[in-house]
Amino acid sequence: MNAPIVSFNHVGKTFDVDGFTLEAIREFNLDIAEGEFVAIVGSSGCGKSTLLRLLVGLDTQFRGQISVDGKAVTGIGGERGIVFQEHRLFPWLSVADNIGLGLVNEPLSAAQKHKRIHDFIELVGLGDFARAYPHQLSGGMAQRVAIARGLVASPRILLLDEPFGALDALTRQQMQDELLAIRARAKITTVLVTHDVEEAIFLADRVVVMEPRPGRIKQVVDIALPHPRQRSSFDFHHLREELLHELTSDDHYQPPVPVQVRDLPLSFIAY
Ligand SMILES: Nc1ncnc2c1ncn2[C@@H]1O[C@H](COP(=O)(O)OP(=O)(O)OP(=O)(O)O)[C@@H](O)[C@H]1O
Ligand SMILES: [Mg+2]
Prior knowledge:
By secondary structure, the chain is of the alpha/beta class. The chain is built from seven helices and ten strands. It has one domain: Rossmann fold. The strands form two sheets. A six-stranded mixed β-sheet has the order 6-7-8-3-9-10, with helices on both faces. Strand 9 and strand 10 form a beta hairpin. It is globular, with a radius of gyration of 18 Å. Magnesium ion binds next to helix 1. One of its GO terms (molecular function) is ATP binding.
């Protein structure tokens, strides 16, 4: 591998919960090459979202080191974009303005920002909803706005936490295809958390299977299938069985509960 763009070295994370220490991540080591697509799968509570929050720089209290381009991560940075597990749209901003938040730190003119925002609104299929507000959207549409916001600044590293969980099967497949198309145009390094093993195999170069809490790497599986991948192919099925076996071969497996975006309380961008 060339020098990795992302490197987790001996990363550990604990939380203090009501006076006791909860060990969320233990001894996590992973190098990710520029342009690589890594998927992370594992049972609910094994630390997947925590890992993304550490990499994006929202939580800097952890053991070990995380580096991007050889520099230690000490906070958020424009080269890293994240789409959260729940959409976190601002209810008082329109679709276009919510997406525009992804460009606040970009050195673009107002006209350039306007064009970029509307290109991404089209990309996620919401051309008629640019001026709508989050409460006027379905859960899946809101999540598509969040995806557009994560992509609009063309980050070099894109972190996706269950981004398609609230979408219907057809839209989900369309968004997966779009994600691959975007990556084919721009060499974005991508880390995707998903509970959907098929999604991981369809998209990723490598799949990291996590052990239940404390989150550790159980296995890293290379997905050497050429694109476009055929979900019905023998090799695809074989990998699916292998991954499902890895995931469920311990007694503590708890399947993640898909997030129902519509049921969530209003929440805000965490930074
Ligand atoms: N801010 C926090 N304070 C205390 N504990 C936390 C906090 N955030 C996460 N945890 C705990 O850390 C562990 C890992 O949580 P995390 O959200 O990373 O899991 P996950 O793998 O993303 O799960 P899911 O698949 O359900 O989304 C859990 O036991 C959770 O309770
Ligand atoms: Mg999570």
